[in-house]
Amino acid sequence: MPDISMITLRPLIALCLCAGPLQAQTASAVNITLSSGTAAENAAKAQLERILAAFPVDRWLLTRDILIDQDVIPHSHPVLTLNAHQLENDTVQAGNLLHEEFHWLEEARPAEREAAIAAFRAQYPDAPAAGPAGARDKYSTYLHLIVCDMELQALTILVGEPAARRLLAAKPYYTWIYNQVLHDPAVRATNVRFGFVVS
Predict the structure, then answer these.
(1) Same domain, yes or no, for 34 and 99?
(2) Which pLDDT does position 159 carry in this prediction?
(3) Edge-to-edge order in the sheet of strand 80-82
(4) Is there a contact between 39 and 68 (Cβ–Cβ < 8 Å)?
């Protein structure tokens, strides 16, 4: 098996959410700004430009502005923000970008999101309410069952299922969440039911 850090991402043919297309940005319309302008942030900007140029991700991007802040924890709001921790691994950084974009996608469908979260509450009443197993609280843990499964779906398209699974299994955070996404078919079934499907 090839090391996932060495995989060249295959072109993405199409991605849509079952509930229908959302208004997306083109990769060329994305504004990338730096928090401090350090060498690491400039390298991360070049990496992100390389990722955006190499793959047809326009239909994924709902955000126009992306901030790079060297040591911040990546987050989606209010501005999608990435760090400079994955300069040697475009695959991981592409996954980080997609993870944060999928927060914008679930936010665009609040009714479906809340219905899925209610289903996850019933399925996993004892889900963790803090890291590293869960997210910052129980609600966020359930929310991340949507986002992290969509991340798996997208990475499977980009690098194949075995590599996508290895990448997510190696994450040192959201460990319970990723374990459910990787091993419990009920997660995917719930997301399919409420239209959180990447194809």
Answers:
(1) yes
(2) 85
(3) 31-34, 65-68, 80-82
(4) no
Cβ proximity of 44 and 79 under 8 Å: no
Residue 3: inside a domain:
no
Which helix (H) or strand (E) segment holds residue 81: the answer is strand 80-82
**Total number of domains in the chain:** 2
Picking from 84, 106, 128, the residue at the C-terminal end of a domain is 106
- The pTM score is 0.83
Measured CA to CA in angstroms, residue 123 lies from 52, 117, 120, 191 at distances of 37, 10, 5, 13
Q: Is the pLDDT of residue 10 over 60?
A: no
DSSP string, 165-183: HHHHHT-SSSHHHHHHHHH
Distance CA 135, CA 164 (A): 21
